[in-house]
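Researcher: I'm preparing a figure for a lab meeting and need a structural model of a single chain. I don't have an experimental structure, so a prediction will have to do for now. The sequence is pasted below. Please return the structure as tokens so I can convert it later.
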Amino acid sequence: MDGMRVDMEALNERIAQGASFIPLLKQEMNKVIVGQSYMTDRLLIALLGNGHILLEGVPGLAKTLAIKSLAQAIQVDFSRIQFTPDLLPADVVGTVIYNQKSESFSVKKGPIFANFVLADEINRAPAKVQSALLEAMQERQVTIGESTYPLPDPFMVLATQNPVEQEGTYPLPEAQSDRFLLKVVLNYPSNEEEQQIIRLNMGGNFPKIQAVVQPKDIANARALVREVYMDEKIERYIVRLVHATRKPSETGFSDLADLISFGASPRASIGLALASKAFAFIQGRGYVIPDDIRSIAADVMRHRIGLTYEAEAEEKTADDVVKEIINKVEVP
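Model: Understood. Here is the structure written out token by token.
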């Protein structure tokens, strides 16, 4: 046991050192983004967990600014694709074009070939385009014509989604939204924050983001995140939380049985483990505690639970379901 304690001390020290760039990164982003620390943390969790993130919220909540600032602070390429109903898969991944002068075909790569890709209003484009993007997210490569091209590393997709009630949108199919490590729901800023936003935007000089981290630091940090210690009790806790969404009647949640049409997939369990390790890493801690899981459970699970018509009639959301499960499942 004593050896284990020494190991934990060494691991803690390694993680704390490895995470020393996190405050610098946050400091840079806070120059231009007021409040929204919840969104900033989730962006970092997705980046460190080598995952993608889906943001839902009304326009004007600094979603584009946040990912652009993060790209500048890490010195990586950023591209933005505005999803529209007339968008084609080739507009995202690229296409083969014929050059008459040289009488040969050449490949024109699309905007997906960047480190950070902002897929703005992903639910405005038809399924063909969504699946082209999601294939790239999953495989980390793109096929154009007969050739396959790897995507740059790090590679992260940040998709934004307008609330689904709006007309002319194509909701993401379950299998596709499941590919996002996190789904984050953003709220309006507070009165004080909004006052700060006005001042920042009215000032003549908008702050410039300095590059404080290099892509290789992110690669090292990702490797360290996987080393964060997770006890067997914590693993069992994750499995119990996810299992409760699948078989609510058998796990003491019979009141939720009528609200859930399908539960979270195994990707939710993997996502909870990975995101909680990244969450611990951001705190500079070498081991996962139950509070890490409770903090990110809604972000990992809200887009992976199907609700019934009864739930909609009772105005219950996936967040309500996750909250009840988190409050009732015994904490290790």
